[in-house]
Amino acid sequence: MEGKDSFTVAVDAMGGDFAPREIVKGAIRAAQENGHKILLVGDESALEVELSNYEVGKLDIIVVASEGVIEETDNPIRAIKEKPYASVVQAARLVKSGDAHAFVTMGSTGAAMAAATLEMGLLDNIDRPAIGGPLFGGLSRTVFGGLSRTVLMDLGSNVDCRPSRLLGFAALGVAFARVIQGIENPRVGILSVGSEEGKGNRQTKEAYPLFKESNLNFIGNVEGMDILLDKADVVVCDGFVGNILMKYTEGLGMALLKHMPDLLGASLPAEISAQISKKLVEMTSPAEVGGGGPLFGINGTAIVGHGRANGENVAQAIIMAENVVKGGLIEAMSKELAALNQLG
Amino acid sequence: MEGKDSFTVAVDAMGGDFAPREIVKGAIRAAQENGHKILLVGDESALEVELSNYEVGKLDIIVVASEGVIEETDNPIRAIKEKPYASVVQAARLVKSGDAHAFVTMGSTGAAMAAATLEMGLLDNIDRPAIGGPLFGGLSRTVFGGLSRTVLMDLGSNVDCRPSRLLGFAALGVAFARVIQGIENPRVGILSVGSEEGKGNRQTKEAYPLFKESNLNFIGNVEGMDILLDKADVVVCDGFVGNILMKYTEGLGMALLKHMPDLLGASLPAEISAQISKKLVEMTSPAEVGGGGPLFGINGTAIVGHGRANGENVAQAIIMAENVVKGGLIEAMSKELAALNQLG
Lengths: 344, 344
Description:
- Two copies of one chain form a homodimer.
- By secondary structure, chain A is of the alpha/beta class.
- The first copy, chain A, has two domains: 159 residues, Isopropylmalate Dehydrogenase (3-Layer(aba) Sandwich); 152 residues, Isopropylmalate Dehydrogenase (3-Layer(aba) Sandwich).
- Helix content of chain A is 46%, strand content 14%.
- In chain A, helix 3 crosses helix 5 and helix 4 runs parallel beside helix 5.
- The radius of gyration of chain A is 20 Å and the shape is globular.
- The first copy, chain A, starts with 7 loop residues before the first strand and ends with a helix.
- At the A-B interface, helix 8 and helix 9 of A face helix 8 and helix 9 of B.
């Protein structure tokens, strides 16, 4: 890796529904438009075929050979043992070795987590990586007016959580809100069924005093509607609740899209209908707007996007990777976790 | 109570944000339009003032005196002890005594549950009442095209649940889907983070085999998006998850309404914008469309509506009460619970 302004990213060219075609397209776009150096990790012959469709002479793209792909349906831990040179593992290895600042994948989230954990390691006081981000309207706070910059986490990685783990999520989310969203002193809330301290299930009731005694800017419990009403900047829940909310939001976009004619009747001009449809899909699939989000808790930058990603999404995910690295997100997360630990 | 076609309902005239004015208005409407007999429960002098605004001579409306109101902020159990003649308790008592077929309230859900449990009792194999219904688009399956007839339960009453309690929710939900929505053999799913049997948290993983061995038409786990995509007719979760999803959906309507200009830009004609706004609020607040929903698990009919209910909502809630009674929902619930119990 060269000077401080250069940015090198390892791209898992074999992960995702439209790999390697759309991944290569996105990588080339990132190299062309932003001058990124790309380590394209995948099956050499397949990548040569894809690259032969483009004028790549002047671009900083290097093919790095890998063997095999970890599929969405594979058990991640077992698959990594069986395919130690799979594309996503090789990509993570390039970050560990210092050859890349970050890796980006559109493949299985479980595989990305396992590979990143194994190769890059976890931050202190973290047992397992987490996933976080706004449910709505893109990863940056400025997309779509005031809607839902609120970061929700965990979104599915930690399904059963002891209450103290929610504290760790909060620290990671605060760093994200500060570095990526530019919020100075992010407000933290616990997702629950009522705003009073006594309201909630066993998990949130036990978590509440831990949050109150922490150094976090804790505003108390928040309810389901508050995620969308700018009550807090970071809202924590276990991965069971978060994953259901994330997929519910996605389903909402799909269902509204499908039923728009029934819902709005014939009175809507086709042009406006198309405009609303586009916004709906964008709003309810933040990963498709932002390209992808970082794995939280990894000691390094790993960006995971949507399996359906196209070239544009891949290019956006690479920009997200650059923002994470240049913004110092991992260092900020490490600092927040340490501050938490000093008190408790 | 007279012949089999007559319908007598006790209406808690003091519960709700706009009580007694809007409650009285709705009760009068129900009496006028549907010939319902109304037992209007509340403060006698306040009700006389309200009734003096209408021509009630020919209507079958009787004022039943009560003392005090249980507020949203009161602890329901304690409040019932302190105010044993509060309007909602008196209304439940009228069902127990056989003077009314059902009661309807727009007051505190907790108070309605406590009053109904205390006065009317619970069905066999039920520890605590539950709340259920579609998250979206009204309580009947035909409102708003194919959108979300799916019944989700529990919506907030049972926050920490052992896995077997989810089975009881399913039985109650199946009866609701059959009687109120007209679905012959309702498909039942467990809300989880993946469709395979092994996916979920401890609670859903333990519940899965119980469902598999039951007499329910169990289709397995469903994910967040499936609630909206007609994958199952009844989806069960604990009241923590259900309450968050319900309030998230409400918040969605509010947030989209607020940000519509940012989202859709100036290109949308005011008339269409108003039309979309109206649909949004209706869609995301089923209680406002249906007027209210029954408490599940009570040995009798208790309908609880939204605190913000207006006269029209109250009249709709009374129609819901009639549908529940005439459809035999409570008997159907009792039968489903017994069938479940015979097997396990």
